[in-house]
Amino acid sequence: MSHTRFPTVAFLSLVLLLATQGPVLAERPPSSRTLVIGVDHTDAANQQPEKFRLFEYTDFFSRTVRVRTGDTLDFRTAPGAFHIVAMARSEDAARDAYPIALLDRDDPPAVGSGKPKIELGPSNGSITNGSAHGGGTIGDPNAFPPTNCGLVQFGQAPCTFRGGDDVESAGGVAGFGQTGPAAVDWQITIDARPGSYAYFCFIHPGMRGRLTVVGGEHADDATDVTSQAQIDAASGAQFQDDREDALEAERAADVVRFTGGAPGTRTYHETVGLSAAENHVAIDEMLPHTLNLDQGDRVEYQWRDPHNVHTVGFPPAEPPLPGPFIPDTFDGPATHEVIGDPGNAAPGTLLTVPSAVVDAGLRIGTAYGLQPTSQTWSVRTNAQTSSGTFAWQCTVHDFMHGELHVSP
Questions:
Q1: pLDDT higher than 90, residue 16
Q2: What is the pTM of this model?
């Protein structure tokens, strides 16, 4: 089982390409600067996929930067992380022009939710020379490298952000190097007029920062722009605050809760991922990891992270569960649409034996703004349910596991 922090993609191609490429930095005028902005953060103590838990820092380190025209930002994705970094004057306008997810209203609803299927949108790939009105070159989300500019490890020249209506995106940049997880850098040179702009992650709503371009006859180089030392100092404090908030949220969620009375009549409540620090940490974890049921009890799964996507499927081994994102074949095999796993089991499905595939399908958080969608699903047990261990997992983050122990 792989322990990736990003949706299942053919990242072995990326590994092989990185192994044959060395970093090449394009020359820039002596007056220009390159500033490193962290994308996600390493936290070995709380990134433990072998223990079925991982803090995904859906944050930029730091969230603010002041530069001059001609400076370059180096967005450095942390080892093992997966994000789609973008720049625009308006994040909202960019998301409207290039949605990350759409509702498929042409096909029958998803079995697992009873709601419209979730279709992947254009911003799952890179965007070059885009605009707040759409257009530009849209990359294939499974292409390696995902974009034609900016990736240092591929020897690419920096991308360019021109301000105005310009929208630029790195596509899915994975922190994965030739020998395992490693930082990956996407560079973009700022060729915009003075003003305020946004940098953000398409796949994690709420993960954003603010770029200010300064200039004019009264601007002062020494006091009006951000230094790397200032970024690093702010990032350290920001990381500590994020982590403390996430640990507190994890402790609060890791408690067995149920409604109802006697054993065999209860409904247990299970958390499928949650957020912390104002959506700056995604806690990719099933909480609690284990529930002890009596025949007749139910389990309600609650998708509590507004800025992430997860699935729940029994069993986590053989027979295999469907992938989290699959081709939409309802209109025939020639379709190029990709949808989230629609599941095979409606809410309230009866668990019978541990080997039976019972799949909730993919649920998307409320911050993506899709309506109608579902953030709950449930299973039930009765006298026909075999006693024993029923194990489940998320297929988007395949290290997220949980177990139900059913007693007769």
A1: no
A2: 0.90
